[in-house]
Amino acid sequence: MRAGWLRQTFVHWPYPPDSVQALLPEGLTVDCYDGSAWVGLTPFVMADVRPPGVPASLPGLPVFAETNLRTYVRRPGGKDGLWFLSLEVACPLMLAARAVGAPYHMGTLRVGEGDGILTYEGARWGGGPSYRLVVRPGAPLVPTDRDVWLTARWRAYTRRFGRLWEMPVQHEPWPLADAVVEELDETLLAAAGLAPPDSEPLVHYSEGVRHVRLGVSAPAAPAR
Fold first, then answer.
1. CA-CA distances (angstroms) from residue 143 to 24, 104, 107, 139, 206?
2. Spatial contact of 14 and 20, defined as CB atoms under 8 Å apart
3. What is the pTM assigned to this prediction?
4. How is domain 2-219 classified at the architecture level of CATH?
């Protein structure tokens, strides 16, 4: 699949590794930076979703909001990637990824922009978790090693039918900027089994990447 990931905010909190490891399936180990596990709330707009060979300029391609709650993992042997604690989405087509264990949930999601701020809102259908995030993007920045570690991940793992699945991802580097959270109210962390964060979040904003290539999920090769 081809797509663009636009108007994306990264809100990250450090967590004790043990508390995140308890949420992972067999075969994955929490990946740490400076001794901490990290959990990210990442709302964005999925745009120009299409199969390979279809131009992004084609009228009528799907555009919808999505919000991920994720953490960072490794397999035995060192292969790193993402593990999604939850995936909130406003497009029913994405629910097909449940077949390989992607934890998609349908909801009512909105991304608004004006007066120099972005507002992300979402509520899972059926009275489940919800969130409201208001962010003010700042100046572009030169990414640090930690910034790259948190944002540049090239595969995602899921678990289904008793085994791990792996989906490769490719896109250009994220153009990152500073950002300030002006409002945040969410229940996604608690729904995923995490305690409230005990520190202020690390926040980045990106206008996005337009050349995302999502590979086909396949059973992960046995660890060596």
1. 28, 30, 33, 12, 12
2. no
3. 0.96
4. Beta Barrel (2.40)
